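RETRY 2/3 - previous attempt timed out on the joint model. Re-submitting the same 870-residue input unchanged.
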Amino acid sequence: MKDSVSVGLLGVGVVGSGVISLIEKHQAKLAHQLGCNVHVKSALVRNPEKAREVDAGVNGTELTTNSEDVLNDPEIDVVIEVMGGIEEAREAILKAFEAKKHVVTANKDLVALHGAELHESATKNKCDFYYEASVAGGIPILRGITDGFASDHIEQVMGIVNGTTNYIMTKMSNEGVSYEDALKQAQQLGFAEADPAADVEGLDAARKMAILGRLAFSTYIDLDDVEVTGIKDIELTDLQYGDQLGLTMKLIGFAKFDGKEVEVNVQPALISKEHPLADVKNEYNAVYVYGEAVGEAMFYGAGAGSMPTAAAVISDVVTVIKNMHRGVTGSQFVEPRFKKELKSESQRFSQYYVRFHAKDEAGVFSRISSLFNKLDISFKQILQNPSKNPDTAEIVVITHTASLQNMNEALEELEKLDEVVEINSFYKVEGDADA
Amino acid sequence: MKDSVSVGLLGVGVVGSGVISLIEKHQAKLAHQLGCNVHVKSALVRNPEKAREVDAGVNGTELTTNSEDVLNDPEIDVVIEVMGGIEEAREAILKAFEAKKHVVTANKDLVALHGAELHESATKNKCDFYYEASVAGGIPILRGITDGFASDHIEQVMGIVNGTTNYIMTKMSNEGVSYEDALKQAQQLGFAEADPAADVEGLDAARKMAILGRLAFSTYIDLDDVEVTGIKDIELTDLQYGDQLGLTMKLIGFAKFDGKEVEVNVQPALISKEHPLADVKNEYNAVYVYGEAVGEAMFYGAGAGSMPTAAAVISDVVTVIKNMHRGVTGSQFVEPRFKKELKSESQRFSQYYVRFHAKDEAGVFSRISSLFNKLDISFKQILQNPSKNPDTAEIVVITHTASLQNMNEALEELEKLDEVVEINSFYKVEGDADA
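RETRY 2/3 succeeded.
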């Protein structure tokens, strides 16, 4: 057993500085747990002159602009990749595995896109490969799913896994501000990037759901398998109707597996206010897991930030070093064992919310409801209000559980009806205990 | 590596039957993870004739009334103790360790009382000893704390760790029913025992907090170190005032560690409705962890029940078998490293809620508030209502943060005032973001 384990860092940005300062600060705790010291020997930076939150050089970490100094250093056993981006990070990690170094990464984009290839290389080189920080920052959700539910069958995962969109939607719900204004506030507070596309279009959440789905269901989910709808088109009207009906709008990552087919998507959905996910506010993240034996469990916490993410990275480093000492490296979070088959629309079931405008004439609602009934869709709740145009009414319905195929067909038929002026919005409804 | 690992079961009650049926059901998943089969070879029962939920005999498990058949069977590597009780279970586990068998238990009473002794024996015999199921049933909280927060300093843990009392208090809060009626309902639904003393007096929660505190702070917490107040004396009046003030009453297990002194207690407390613990309803459990780096994280789920508890037991068995295969048994959740020192009342700080009756005379309130001010206690909120007796007023105050010592002194002084008729209640207030 080594007296001291040297790790190398790729990237000293927000997360990387956190890693250096946490390892420094908790030397005693780490030494107690591991029986050895942990030392960040060298770190790859783009510009060593640039001032950093942690003055890495002072703490005994050599800064370098050449990745080979980290990847080819025989003293370094563990490489931490927190540089971000795809291609450069992918190549660096593959080189690290070839040099028999264990890898810990926080890079969800990379793991979602190239997870299979990286796992394969790790296995081939008998290296450890962990990425707890890639999903929901400081929340130990990946280990929770793989270890905590080891003997259970996970049926469904629902997650609020993007803090930016949750912050925006919380503002919209609680303060009635528009999407644009809420986004501006989020940007001012640092919860949204200057270019918020990856967050608000749902891509960031989709990457995390691909990773979560893979670990929960033990099957490879590709990013292309994840259906994505962003939050840009959400209207305050639907948040207000939702509120009247006891529902809150959230960007929900949804993954379901029945032992055969799998379904993964990210979309704004209305969720019952009684459901614990409805109470997850602002920039917080939470993942709700339905296990056959365990029942419902939720993991809640900060989904991003320098220190939470760095803490998750180091929890992986601790696992790796324990494995090294025991001589059992080469283990992964989990080895997929199922062939993936995606659910068709006829196999996907949910309750739905539809808002539309129809002519305010006798008999209209009866024709509409018989259209739905023919497709086996019945209504759980109906709201009808006069609209600005005196000849039309605004109608909101919440259906009982129906297949997505039937729902889509019903919406097509509905649009064709002369009495229907416009279909305004259509959302899934989750978390209804009577569903 | 063995093709098949035999485990022995002590007790085939609610949890034990769950263990047998889950291991049976998830053979394929377990075999995939472990590379071997898992087989419950024999099980200790009190009465083999008694009908059981799982007909253990049929599934190839031998039933025996002699514990030696399990503890001395050389083929059995792992002993699962789910018989409950203290002395018999303690002796059986010590014998198992002496016979070099790894032990998994769900027995919180035993771990809280004799954890140190059992850990010592496990270490001496190089055996694994895990008890994930002992706290919060199916929620993987112990592993979450020890592995997920490996590189973090946990500052505080607040838990709703007893489902019975949470069910009763949810009923009282939401439906305004009395403690007695809520308890009756809980008993009818099976959420409370015929003799509910251990639950409603807070002892069950205290045991779990002793275990949680030990793992979170890496120091031995004795059950005697945990200050306990039960829920029997809670009055609806205080729930209603709390509601007006934006607070919900919960039985909160509280553990705090500042790196030097530790504080662990269980008591009914008022918690801000904005805090995620306030939304934990009915029989659900949740543990809220404050880590220096990770920030706030919550683990939520079913705290009891046959299947959730059995799933937690098996997650421990999976850990043990992985350790066996790697030849690294003898590991524990965590080895305490700090000497315990309890906080004195002058080192314990909180906000407080006090309800009392005072004479409805000019100048009374000013005398009362100057009494508090002299002890450095200021008020954050004040409610005054006329009481049934026209000469007295009912007063509720919420203080800013104050030391428990000053609060106790203030209450003593308050009681001595001629103007004060009666002090009715006194609770901690938690979860105030402005505190």
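The mean pLDDT of chain B is 91. Closing ticket.
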